[in-house]
Design brief:
With about 140 residues, this protein is an alpha+beta fold. The chain is about 45% helix and about 20% strand. The chain has one domain. The protein has two helices and four strands, in the order αββββα. Keywords: Bacterial flagellum, Cell projection, Cilium, Flagellum.
Amino acid sequence: MSMFQIFNVAGSAVSAQAQRLNVVSSNLANADTVAGPDRSAYKARHVVFTTEPMGDVGAAGVTVSNVVEDNTPGRMVHDPGHPQADAQGYVTFSNVNPIEEMVNMISASRSYQNNIEVMNTAKSLLMKTLQLGQG
């Protein structure tokens, strides 16, 4: 794998993790939403990654192939006085689990940071190689 190919592989991972962070932030923003007039609450979304060949034999990057909805049922809370309560007095909240989303956010941001560090290290190695040619 060439040194320049490292930037393609790490760059694809950075882009994929940025998309993952956007999905996580959307989930967290809607964690406490309730079902609207159509009786369907916000459903958590998850990013699906796939590997992508990146030129050289054995070099593979990552891409987001899909963003899927989590179909687990939302949280039901008995609150007959709530304006969105159904006939039995239950309010349907989104199925977002804020703790899982925070763990997902930490994982995505660490992966993002690691891939930035890979690119910085590759850049540093290329710069040192150029300096060797000057001396």
